[in-house]
């Protein structure tokens, strides 16, 4: 067993207590919004962030903290030209960006281990003045039909006039952390940079909730001591005797509000370094925020290092084995990943997968949000506007989160999202299955899950409805973990999460089936702008939409819970009854899709051979909404294959199942040929029988429709020349193929499901096809691509899709990575080309990355696809 695996399995030492838990954007979040109208972006701006104290967290560049974020470490920089310290990543707000919020920086997650014994991140800092105003002005000028204006487009990296700033961490022990910042001058001339490693306390003392305040104090020229009532005494060592600067992590009310108040405020270190204001820092060399100030003038191609050590004991010779520890931890990280990458075909695939894992691990974040406290306000602060008590999230008064959670993207989406997190856990399970299981359980705990059984969606609206994929993720994580355990699964985990998901399933059945006919609505269901109109809002036509995707998700959910119940039933037969319940739910849903409300309405269109949403009007009329989108492919996900040995081990379930199929042949005929065993005598449960599946796959694998060189598009390319149009109440609603960024402001305008390639649904397509293959075997062939004359098995089709998705990140025959599009610097520059970005979604034709640039996140599923290939 390698050293990192040993640490990972060590239950006696808190190796994960310190990690990359600092977010990259705390400003502009719902948590920090105390406005009456809920305008989070304007309530706490980037400009305010350097001078104003956060209530619910901290942010920084390449930052770490303890798992309750009492203390934070990060890096700040100054190039001698910028008007402010580079303490945090800059980006546009939702209203400033022509496609919504967007980070405008170049940074990369390069390495990380599950215990964070070694971590590495790169930030590229321009030597020219950072173009803050240019980015705001130009993006505001552009329309939704224009491309986003990125940092690299401004010319600040021309002639390579920038610094590469590599920040690494290595743990000597669970409470002993080394930090190394290596700065390279990539430019053609000498250039100066200021490097300021920071240490500070999250402000817990200004809110009237505690009577203690921690402190930082200079102990010697190289040492800061800190005292904290929870963390105790700690020491921070800086190599080389830099200037040590101190201030308080408190709001500069003079700067922001014109209120005179003595003190040394949050922005004091920046004022001292940039403006030479010695009165901005504490001459007594103490405070709650501190930095070590290094200044380097580097020749072209030269590098310098900054060394820091943070530990829980006073240490003589703190840097004596500094290089050796880093070398050892890097070797151990290599050994850990080498053991998991034995089957990958080449170094490039290993590089891509390892950076995907790095992104997954760097995207952990301490997330703190106490809804009752947030709505009522703090005793040490003015009372919030009374409107808030009836505003956002007022129905989630039980919610009180203070844990490490996997984020979609720590700048663009620095808050957990229920359905994103479920997908995160699949690649995470490959390297840290315990963390993956803990994450899934966490969202079902009573301080997350609503008392009515609903899972919290995300902080903008915890009550929104996301696809019910939690059970699918739990089963997939269980399977991955079972393989790691040598065939023995974690039954306690499975049974525990099953009990909580029963509550969630009941909530779905009671709340989202408007007509009690097993046809579900649910709203936007994570697919943002995919519909003809906003499915979460009141329809302009009145009535409601019988959603093909919501109903298919519930069919999938039923099968997922059935499979979990069957597994638990192998050790406790009581659960056979539950498995039967979910099997029956699945059959009723299948029947309802074929005959909505008993009125002969079918969500499957025989002429188009596709599934559509159906608009149910107030007068009782039904109108199919004939948009060829991912909505119509989601029925593929409702598939389960049962092994004969499992059925033989559960005779009561098998008997009940046989009875039901015998006495309800109308339903049985819709979902499977139960009495026709497939390969290996397996049995199939699916919304799609062979013929219908072939017809749906024919359209999905058509390169003029869904099949892209890089995966399955979310909307058929057919709608490029044939937009779908619907007229209602004097308005025209249209859906057209848009392969990259959205051209509408629906759902903020920063994501688009009308054409691009999205990893979560593509991964589910691949996984579903592999299940179908387990039943049909090698004799069942389909044409892939449609019209090619090439007939392959379903497994080979799944492998082809997985390869196309992986192709986004891997170098092609020209040495280029499609994810980078036509950006020559990213494609060819030695210092850019092997730093991979895992975007939110991808151009439906050429594969260029779009949306959030660091969504590992669910695009970390790329690591899973590479492992499964």
Can you describe this structure in just a few lines?
This protein has 869 residues and is α+β, with helices and mostly antiparallel strands. Helices cover 30% and strands 20% of the residues. The protein has 24 helices and 34 strands.
Characterise this structure.
The protein has 869 residues and is an alpha+beta fold. It has a domain at 3-340: Distorted Sandwich (Beta-galactosidase, Chain A, domain 5). It is built from 24 helices and 34 strands. Strands 6-7-8-9-17-13-12-11-15 form a 9-stranded antiparallel sheet. The chain has a 6-stranded antiparallel sheet with strand order 1-2-3-10-16-14, covered by helices on one side. A 3-stranded antiparallel sheet has the order 20-23-24. Helix 8 runs antiparallel to helix 24 (861-868) and helix 10 packs parallel to helix 12. The longest helix has 22 residues, at 548-569. The chain is globular, with a radius of gyration of 28 Å. The mean pLDDT is 94.
If you compute it from the alpha carbons, what radius of gyration comes out, rounded to the nearest whole angstrom? 28 Å
**End-to-end CA span:** 25 Å
Q: Mean pLDDT, as a whole number?
A: 94
What is the percentage of strand-forming residues? 15-25%
Structural category? alpha+beta
Q: Outline the biggest β-sheet.
A: 9 strands, antiparallel
**Morphology call:** globular
Q: Extract low-pLDDT stretches.
A: none
The CATH topology of the domain at 3-340: Beta-galactosidase, Chain A, domain 5
Q: Give the count of helical stretches.
A: 24
Q: Roughly how much helix do the residues carry, as a percent range?
A: 25-40%
DSSP E strands, number = 34
The CATH C-level class name of the domain at 3-340: Mainly Beta
CATH hierarchy: architecture of the domain at 3-340: Distorted Sandwich
Name the strands of the widest sheet in spatial order. Answer: 6-7-8-9-17-13-12-11-15
